[in-house]
Amino acid sequence: MAEIDTEYSMSEKFDVVVIGAGLGGLECALSLSKHGKRVCVLEKNALLGGCLQTFRRKGHCLDTGFHYVGGLDKGQMLYKLFSYFGLMNLPWVKMGEQCFDEVVIGSRRYSLPQGYDNYKQALLQYFPHQKDGINEWVDLLKKVGDNTDKSFEPRSVDEFYTQSLFAQSAYDYLQKIFSDNDIIDVISGPSIKMELNANKLPLYTFAQINCSFLQGAYRLRNGGMQIAEQLRMQIEANGGVVRRNAEVTGVSAVDGKVGAVVVNGSEHVEADIFISDLHPATTINLLAESGLVRNIYRKRINNLENTFGMFTTHILLKPNTIKYISHNIFAYSESNLWHIEQRPSEGEVKEILISMNPPEDATNEYVDHLDILTPMQWSEVEKWFGTKIGYRGADYEQMKQNVAQKCLEMASKYISGLSDAVSAIYTSTPLTYSDYIGTKDGAAYGIRKDYNQLMYTILTPRTPVANLFLTGQSLNLHGILGTSMTAMFTCAEILGMETIVTDLKNI
Q1: pTM of the full predicted structure?
Q2: What does the alpha-carbon distance between residue 502 and residue 77 come to, in Å, rounded to a whole number?
Q3: Using 50, 70 and 90 to split pLDDT, how confident is the model at 481?
Q4: Which of 36, 176, 315, 451 is the most exposed place for a label (fewest CB within 10 A)?
Q5: Rg, Å, the chain Cα set
């Protein structure tokens, strides 16, 4: 149990209490505070930001889960949202115009540039015999991108851009428009940032995430924690309260609503409205003893599948050994990416993402660290669930060492001199995410969306409790853009969609 935050030991009442200081929770709090609501954000950890958290090792700033964003060019959706949230003054660094994502499949390498037209020309150069399919694919991306902001005006959006695309299979669509599986692999290659599930992934999710990065891909110098801290400062400037080491351990029901949350097992914090940025299952389980939700609803939420987790190898580098690369490398040991079996029991690594943060010193052309990410299933770490960090046993440490070594071996094929440049290695697993950030099953992208069960797996901000709302990447779209859009949907339930539309139009 978290240490009690004695600075706020007396019971207080707010207009809105936000549970969890991840990106979505902080954005909700800031938006509501802009409209005069007195908000209180309660975070169980000492650090804010959820997956935006950073940590330092040997003086270097390492990111937990933040690596790059899309849609940040002027006029694009994330640019509008981050302008509204006061985040555009951070040290954003645009990735390579001619190559922001490199896809490597076996010995074949493909460079993907930013911009729809550049992207189309690159695909046509690699696969001239797939011209018709490429034109259709890029046209779809443009349509999805052009209509993203209309998500906040649902009555004006043609169903083609909402329900019908969510209800279609991404994999089946690609199979329909392309006759060459190689181009499907290349288009799907930059998708370790989502889960390529051939049986479930909705077409809208796949297209929206791909198009957003084509609209402007950026990294952030000096770590994602800056986003959380910038949001915190603005919330507090608007009269809000952001508390750390304040774990919500229960709720108090009043007249069929949430009257207060219990903090650190004893303190009660009251509000008129409550927003949870926790995983929906974690949120609903907090209500278990309150009688506010029926067991059938709680079981439904708890039974929803979660996406895979992520194993990250953080590599500190010797000075002046590896130059900064302004693109990501998505590497696969075999083709047919939609059907790559997640790493089998022997720990073989088949797919990695190599990501570099811009050097902390903008004048330095060398990086001091890089990250290697590979998907990892919860089943691979579940047997250690419930153990404490640092006390999980020798077999857990050996597992991490083995996977990290295989990630390094694979990455060394694409980064010349990498093996000799390593000065230290740190790792994280889905269990790390579960312990530090509270993600259920250590899921990297929240609840698994299923185009076959659209209304079951895509959640709305509303819950059966009238004054309790949800936010976060588990609801509909994940990632920085998806989470930021969802935060606005949540606020629209409180402020009205007309208010949100007006706010964004004024950017």
Answers
A1: 0.93
A2: 15
A3: very high
A4: 36
A5: 22
